[in-house]
């Protein structure tokens, strides 16, 4: 549990440090890319440091060839859950306003450099980093208290932490839309990790889940505006 907190704090410190670099660069593209880079460098750097001094084999960081099936499963799961919660989304956001600040990032991704960086972050770095943290460290730390307690508690933390980037003006409405799908995703990822004993399936399912958002990033701005 302490390791999870240390790795999480490493990401926050990395983000802060790279924000300073971005401000010094004075370029709009770097203001988007560098904070994300700092987040993952901080998380993974601290994790690497801790793993060199402790036995990290219990985390099960291994990917097998058959695991790539989970990319498709993650994409299907994302679409299915989006359809299930579509009535709630339309009820709370009838004008189709995106409930996350990520919409502002997408709108500003007007260069190939930023688009590629955001796609890599969504499909590669975020799944690897978050699975190491939430299913590798937190889930394993809680497992001694009981498997289902570990699954539910780690999934709740996973979902709640993702709420930190929401629009403050509509925080509770946005939370009502985003928290349940993320909690369900966390449940699936935690159960899959405990079932297989490895992080590979969860990493690739998580990557598939994010794949739809990455695809949206690659669509022309004019088309996104027409789609609302």
Structural class designation: mainly alpha
Per DSSP E runs of 2 or more residues, the count of β-strands stands at 0
Radius of gyration: 18 Å
Low-confidence stretches: none
Helix content: over 70%
- Head-to-tail CA distance between termini: 42 Å
Taken in chain order, the helices and strands follow as: HHHHHHHHHH
List the total number of helices. Answer: 10
Task: Write down the overall mean pLDDT.
Answer: 86
Q: What fraction of the residues are assigned to beta strands by DSSP?
A: under 5%
- Report the principal-axis shape: globular
Total number of domains: 2
- How would you classify the quaternary structure? single chain
Largest sheet: none
Question: What would your notes on this structure say?
Answer:
This protein has 228 residues and is mainly α. The protein folds into 2 domains: 1-55, no CATH class; 65-227, no CATH class. The protein is 78% helix and 0% strand. The chain is built from 10 helices and no strands. The protein has helices spanning 2-25, 28-51, 69-84, 86-92, 102-108, 112-143, 147-161, 171-196, 200-218, 221-227. Helix 1 packs antiparallel against helix 2, helix 3 packs across helix 9 and helix 6 (112-143) runs antiparallel to helix 7 (147-161).
Features:
228 residues; mainly alpha; 2 domains; 10 helices
Question: What's the short story on this structure?
Answer:
The chain is mainly alpha-helical and about 230 residues long. It has ten helices and no strands.
Give the topology.
Elements: H1 2-25, H2 28-51, H3 69-84, H4 86-92, H5 102-108, H6 112-143, H7 147-161, H8 171-196, H9 200-218, H10 221-227
Helix pairs in contact: 1-2, 1-6, 2-6, 3-9, 6-7, 6-9, 7-8, 8-9
């Amino acid at each position: 549990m302490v390791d999870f907190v240390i790795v999480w704090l490493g990401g926050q410190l990395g983000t802060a440090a790279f924000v300073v670099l971005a401000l010094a660069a004075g370029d709009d593209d770097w203001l988007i890319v560098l904070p994300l880079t700092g987040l993952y460098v901080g998380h993974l750097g601290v994790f690497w440091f801790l793993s060199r001094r402790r036995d990290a084999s219990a985390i099960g960081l291994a990917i097998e060839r058959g695991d790539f099936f989970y990319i498709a499963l993650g994409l299907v799961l994302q679409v299915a859950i989006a359809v299930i919660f579509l009535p709630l989304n339309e009820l709370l956001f009838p004008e189709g306003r995106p409930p996350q600040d990520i919409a502002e990032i997408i709108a500003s991704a007007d260069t190939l450099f930023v688009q590629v960086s955001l796609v890599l972050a969504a499909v590669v770095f975020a799944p690897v980093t978050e699975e190491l943290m939430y299913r590798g460290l937190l889930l394993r730390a809680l497992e001694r208290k009981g498997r289902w307690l570990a699954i539910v508690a780690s999934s709740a933390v996973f979902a709640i932490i993702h709420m930190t980037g929401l629009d403050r003006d509509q925080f509770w409405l946005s939370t009502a839309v985003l928290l349940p799908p993320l909690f369900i995703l966390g449940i699936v990822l935690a159960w899959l990790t405990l079932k297989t004993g490895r992080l590979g399936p969860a990493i690739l399912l998580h990557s598939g889940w994010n794949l739809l958002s990455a695809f949206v990033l690659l669509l022309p701005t004019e088309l996104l505006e027409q789609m609302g």
